[in-house]
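Task: sequence design from structure.
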């Protein structure tokens, strides 16, 4: 009976050791997988900051100083981590932020082009006025909102 108990103990202890090692292995594999996914998210955050937000901030500051030559294009391929966990939710949120940064860059470009048109119209009107052609009127096509009102008021 004692020999059987000792054999049972060895089998049980061996099973526990093998099971524990197996669980540790699964935990390590899972941790590496999570670490890689988080690493991709961290890389995307840095890319959005470096290639999206920083160029937009620089171009906006230049525009505020009257420099209409600054343009910016922002485009990111989606991370597409379609998982049902928090990491997948974070990745989807970053994909949305990247898309929003692209839309903001496109809107910035439209604003820049509108201001360029406004400056061009104003230069033509002031040039005509300086030359004595006070009957010259600006073309309001392509101008909307407050920009259109401003030029219409000058007309």
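Answer:
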């Amino acid at each position: 009976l004692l020999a059987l108990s000792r054999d049972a103990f060895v089998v049980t202890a061996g099973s526990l050791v093998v099971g524990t090692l197996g669980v540790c292995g699964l935990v390590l594999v899972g941790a590496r997988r999570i670490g890689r996914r988080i690493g991709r998210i961290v890389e995307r955050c840095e890319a959005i900051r470096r290639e999206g937000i920083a160029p937009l901030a620089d171009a906006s500051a230049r525009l505020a100083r009257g420099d209409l030559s600054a343009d910016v294009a922002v485009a990111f391929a989606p991370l597409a981590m379609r998982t049902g966990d928090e990491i997948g939710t974070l990745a989807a949120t970053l994909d949305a932020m990247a898309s929003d940064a692209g839309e903001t860059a496109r809107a910035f470009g439209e604003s820049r082009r509108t201001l360029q048109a406004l400056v061009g119209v104003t230069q033509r009107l002031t040039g005509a006025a300086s030359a004595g052609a006070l009957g010259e009127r600006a073309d309001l096509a392509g101008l909307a909102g407050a920009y259109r009102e401003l030029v219409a008021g000058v007309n």
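The helical segments are 2-64, 86-130, 145-154.
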